[in-house]
Amino acid sequence: MPDTQQQRVLVTGAAGMLGSQVLLSMPDGMTAVGTDLCEAPGVDAPGVDLGDPAACAKLFAERGPFTGVIHCAAYTAVDKAEEESAVAQRVNGDLCGVLARQCARDGVPLVLVSTDFVFDGRGARPYREDDPTGPLSVYGATKLDGERQAREAWPTGTRVVRTQWLYGPRGRHFAGTIETLAREREELKVVDDQRGAPTSTLELAPALWDVLRLGEAGVYHAACEGDATWFDFAKAVIELRGIDTVRLEPCSTAEFPRPARRPAYSVLDCSRLTALRGKSLAPWREALSTYLGGEEH
Which of 41, 177, 202, 223 has the fewest CB atoms within 10 Å, measured from its CB? Predict the structure, then answer.
């Protein structure tokens, strides 16, 4: 990328949990333009349908020139996607192709945020970037198709960053839901046979900027260090919050059926990103403690 004084970066999904944190994590000397379908703080260009090639081109012409794009916008309602597959495909799949083609025309590097749901969860070691994919859900399949469309449209300019189990200061997420329920109920059952890595947007957002500034085209994995089950994650939230009025019990996925299948094991090998940045994302429990100590209420 060119000198930081000349960098102007488009951040999509700027009203969302991740996109809003990406804006707040912007490095010095850069200018970010946030876009989202809705109006919110940090959203400079609301109402833009990036899946419409004409609207996408107009945004680039009127708000650019851009020197980079960090694409955080996505359809993330995993279970609802099973019923709304066409909408999920348009947002997670086809939109990525439209955006990548526009980036290719302008010669703009693209960072595309993807997910661990592209894997089938049958692995026994952390997934590397070149491991075979096999999504189990509509959400995972559409996100994988978005990866494919973007990389085919802009092979030398697209950096795919797969992450997982996100939570952060803004938006709805597992950590916040667990805390609320733990204060309301006497007993909670949480799935204990799905394993991944809870990842804070406070850790991920700066990493996305580093991939844009320092990375080459290809795929990166980005998650907090270590691994846990959802039960482990919930237990840590309750312990760190000092809630002692709830009884937490483990359960199986079969006991808590959901419309969309989840990978049983989706821990990500993040060594490529660590090599790029010279450091890893924080251990997941440390990152959770930081978040709980500084989240916005």
Answer: 41
- The Cα 222–Cα 274 span in angstroms is 9
Q: Are 201 and 258 in contact (CB under 8 A)?
A: no
Spatial separation of the C-alpha atoms in residues 159 and 208, rounded to whole Å: 10
Active-site residue numbers? 139
- CA 278 – CA 170 distance, rounded (Å): 28
Residue whose C-alpha is closest to residue 103's, from 31, 153, 139, 177: 153
CA-CA distance, 36 to 34, in Å (whole number)? 7
Q: Collapse the DSSP code of 58 into the 3-class scheme (helix H, G, I; strand E, B; otherwise coil) and give the result.
A: helix
76-107 confidence digits (pLDDT tens): 999 999 999 999 999 999 999 999 999 999 99
Tell me how far the alpha carbon of residue 142 is from its chain's centroid. 14
Q: Which fold has domain 4-170+198-225+267-282?
A: Rossmann fold (3.40.50)
Three-class DSSP category at 33: strand
- Whole-number Å distance between alpha carbons of 74 and 142: 10
Token code pair at residue 276: 């790029």
- Residue 37 burial class via C-beta count within 10 angstroms: exposed 0-12, middle 13-18, buried 19 and up: middle
| pTM for the full predicted model | 0.95
Which residues neighbour 180 within 8 Å (Cβ) at sequence distance 6 or greater? none
Nearest to 177 by CA among 22, 287, 17: 17
Q: Give 197-215 pLDDT, tens digit per residue.
A: 999 999 999 999 999 999 9
Q: What percent of the chain has pLDDT over 90?
A: 92
